[in-house]
Amino acid sequence: MIHHKQYFKSDHTSQSHQFIVEGPVDPEILKRYQFDDGLDSFRLPEEQFEALIEIAELPEGRIIIAREDDLIVGYITFVHPDPYERWSDGNLPYILELGAVEVTPKFRQFGLASSMLKLSFQDNQMEEYIVITTEYYWHWDLKSSNLDVYEYKNMMIRFMQQVGFEVYQTNDPEITSHPANTLMARVGANIDDTKRIQFDKIRFKDRFFF
């Protein structure tokens, strides 16, 4: 499968701040930017920045960013699922994982996450993929949001529904370990029944299908 990538860019203005939302961003372009110190939800900012560059270098990897001048203040990642997770079973080239959405705390009320998400799916190539996202409550910033796990879950569902994600059932142990954990997926318009069935088999591993 050839992973075509078409670049998109949009302006985002909020409260006198001028942002650029763009992507998928080439790794060499990413290296020219700075990375906000508040982007530390998953690892140290400098380590996370290196991880983004590595993803951008992958054939299927997509990095969407929001930046103020040359400072990256938010990002979304798309990459094949981790080889140690069930979602990589069969190494299906048409399954991508939306792995992370992060905006630096000082700009989280500016709508940047939604702008990045919507721009991500402007590329028609995304209709060739089943894009999954696994929502685990232990990754959520419950303290800053002042939401409980179920309110946060509902917020994430509404957020993903903006671009056509739906909740899918699964017997994956990590998802079923807590009722707030959620599997969501967006099935591209060009995904045929054979590919859908393969996805179903991964969702319900070790269950027989007739």
Automatic annotation (TrEMBL):
Record's InterPro entries?
AcuA (IPR024699), Acyl_CoA_acyltransferase (IPR016181), GNAT_dom (IPR000182)
Provide the GO MF annotations for this entry.
acetoin dehydrogenase (NAD+) activity; acyltransferase activity, transferring groups other than amino-acyl groups
**Please, which domain of life does this record's source organism belong to?**
Bacteria
A biological process (GO) annotation for this entry? acetoin catabolic process
Residue span, N-acetyltransferase domain = 28-189
Q: Which residues form a coiled coil?
A: none
Q: Which CDD domains match?
A: NAT_SF
What protein is this chain from?
Answer: Acetoin utilization protein AcuA
* Species per Swiss-Prot/TrEMBL record: Aliicoccus persicus
